[in-house]
Amino acid sequence: MSTFWLSFCLLPLWTVLPVTAGKPCAAQSFGGTSVVCVCNATYCDTIDPLVLPKKGYYLLYETSKAGKRLESKTGKILTNTKQQGLQLIFDVKKKYQRIKGFGGAITDAAAINILSLSAGSQENLLRSYFSEEGIEYNIIRVPMASCDFSTHVYTYDDYPGDLDLQHFSLTEEDTKMKIPIIQAAKALSKRPLYLFASPWTAPAWMKTNNSTIGKGTLKGKPGGQYYKLWANYFIRFLDEYAKHNLTFWAVTIQNEPTTGLITNYSFQCMGFTAELQRDFIVLDLGPALQNSTHKDVQLMILDDQRILLPYWAKVNLNNFVTGWTDWNMALNLQGGPNWVKNFVDSPVIVNSSQDTFYKQPMLYHMAHFSKFVPEGSLRVGLDPSAATELETVAFLRPDGSAVVNVLNWTPNDIDFVIWDPEHGFIKAHSPAESIQSYLWKLH
Question: Which of 51, 85, 128, 232 has most Cβ atoms within 10 angstroms of its Cβ?
């Protein structure tokens, strides 16, 4: 299940959508097929803290292309009633993966856009992502030095031949931008925040092509001087962030490692094959972490396009994925800044000239997972009684309640029931192009 509609076009038309929870969305159309929710220093839509109804009732949250944004209502769970049609059978006996969480990336671009707003708008933006009145992200990805979503290329040691990393230093992008934003997010979050870091490239002087871009790998081979130096670069990064009271849950070995194996790739990259990455971990990075104060930091492989995953993990949610990290948390009206003009979309678009930001539909789509499927949730069985175009997934939450997410990509409304054999039936209706979360107590 993934984001399934975007809207960002022209010519604003204002309206306010009625919702039953928190402050309503100040909806604005830009001439597309859906709306964005407009926020500024004095107003931003919010979600009331989640309170489950008493046993025998369910709570429904719904987001739709038609304009609903996490609208909620309660209903009664039916018992002793014969149900017809499509049934989704909730089965707690089938147990699968536990969820770690959901989040996004604080890139240089995201930080620049967030900091371009007034203090009030900044707080409302971060509340929308991290607070109990927002979607409650619990994972943040942090690039190690620059990426394409930076204004220029830099690493933490651009001093050729510095084999002792004596010149290693964080930059203003870290100390004045990313770190203050992460600290503010931590202060707003009731959930533990997990940070993981990803490098795009080593300094040019450590690489075979003597460049931060294009086809190239680290000089030498795993176990050699430059691979050990690169491992120590990771340790220094973790050390410097720790000085700001920020510790990392994990690091990935390399952002998109296959791109550094491609001739003339246009922005920061460095090549790794699966075998090179394995040997670097075994011979260099693993021991470096184990012998440091960061021995509990987790290592993640691949960090690349999903299609490559089977080939790297021989040795996604219905397919045992334990979480999802989106890309930039905030971009400008152009989809940047990005030094190679590789502009993309984002759940939040910032209009700094008006001290305003727009929450796109994908942010509310993500909320159905990040807010209602917290860390520690266990995916369980949800079996359809017949073929269906609905995409569905079910979880046991740590508080002992159940949540079922239902995604309807189709242009048609679909009626169905959720059958919990222990508690009864939820008579349900999925509007066209919508996503829903059904929650109920089990005990």
Answer: 128
Q: Above 90 in pLDDT, residue 270?
A: yes
CA distance 272 to 260: 7
Q: How far is CA 197 from CA 73, 178, 308, 344, 393, in A?
A: 39, 12, 20, 21, 29
Q: What are phi and psi of 90, to 5 degrees?
A: -80, 125
Going by C-alpha positions, the residue among 130, 101, 114, 126 that lies closest to residue 325 is 101
Query: Cα separation of 249 and 299, whole Å?
Result: 9
Model confidence pLDDT, tens digit, residues 332-381: 999 999 999 999 999 999 999 999 999 999 999 999 999 999 999 999 99
Token readout for 45 is: 């839509």
Can you state the angle between helices 108-115 and 179-188, rounded to 10 degrees?
70
List, as one string, the DSSP characters of 195-225.
Answer: EEEEES---GGGBTTSSSBSS--BSS-TTSH
Question: Topology of domain 101-370, per CATH?
Answer: TIM Barrel (3.20.20)
List strands edge to edge, sheet with 331-332: 13-16, 26-29, 36-39, 356-359, 348-351, 331-332
For residue 77, give every residue at least 6 positions away whose Cβ sits within 8 Å of its Cβ, in sequence order, or none.
56, 57, 58, 420, 423, 424, 425, 426, 440
Alpha-carbon dihedral sign for residues 292, 293, 298, 299: negative
What are φ and ψ of residue 237, in 5° steps? -60, -50
Listed range (116-125, 259-268, 375-384, 413-422) with the worst mean pLDDT: 259-268
Beta bridge mates, 197: 142, 251
Lay out the sheet containing 71-76: strands in order across: 71-76, 57-64, 434-441, 401-408, 391-396, 378-384, 87-98, 414-420, 424-430
Give dist(CA 244, CA 121) in Å, integer: 24
- Does pTM top 0.85 for this prediction? yes
Give just the sign of the alpha carbon dihedral 16, 18, 23, 28.
Answer: negative
Could you tell me where the beta strands, DSSP code E, fall in 25-105?
Answer: 26-29, 36-39, 57-64, 71-76, 87-98, 101-105
CB count in 10 Å sphere of residue 111 = 24
Cα Rg of the chain (Å, integer): 23
By residue count, the chain amounts to: 443
Contact present, 250 and 300 (Cβ < 8 Å) = yes
The DSSP code for 87 is: E
Tokens of 322: 């334990």
